[in-house]
Amino acid sequence: FLWDVKPEDLVKPEEKDEEDIDEDEEEADQGKKKKTVAERRKSAKEKEAQLREVERKLMGSEDNPQTVDQYERAVLTRPDDADLWIRYISYHLQATEIEKARAVARQALQTIGVSLAAERLKVWTALLSLENLFGTQESLKSSLDEALRNNDEFSVYSKMLKIFSDSNKPLETEQLVQRMLRKLKGSPECWLLCCSALMKCGLADKARNLLHRAIAALPAREHVNLLCKFALLENQY
């Protein structure tokens, strides 16, 4: 007889039946499944954060593109943004890639909606500036004629006249003045614009002669306003 055995030690421990074991295993499996779901959610959140970071960088590159690929993505998302297209043109010009710059300008004109006249005129102006600086007389004339066919004539003439006078080309300025006045001699604004361009190129005498022609061509009601504005030009230049 074992005297050192306690009564409770003589009680046989309960044995779990198979059903209890199955329940325990099921609970363990569920715990594993819950853990797996949590891990999956964590992984999904991490991937989502990574995607957002990529999107943020892409959006940043669209706002301030620095490469051809970035410009191409940017113009896809903002196809009617003339200022963006002009920056793309300038990007190629800075690299002296004249043909690529010209191609981008043409691409812009094919892309920007025909109803957006102001945006399209910006691109036409950029193309005319490009041809004035890097093109030939033939390419400039061709682009100017095309711009006149596809836009308001006075707007195009005004832009071209400014391009010539800003680049100090008196001969081209004077030739364009004569061409403009054959088309738009009934416009007081056109006469003043031409006088201003001639004055800017240092052709003050020709501008004064043009003023006399304007007075002869325009109705008397326009004379006072014309003379006042010409006097301002004299003071300016």
TrEMBL record:
Biased composition (Basic and acidic residues): 1-15, 36-52
GO cellular component: small-subunit processome
Taxonomic source organism: Homalodisca liturata
InterPro entries in UniProt: Rrp5 (IPR045209), TPR-like_helical_dom_sf (IPR011990)
Domain of life: Eukaryota
Region (Disordered): 1-52
Protein's recorded name: Suppressor of forked domain-containing protein
Composition bias type Acidic residues, residue spans: 16-28
Signal peptide start and end residues: none
Biological process terms in GO annotation: mRNA processing; RNA splicing; rRNA processing
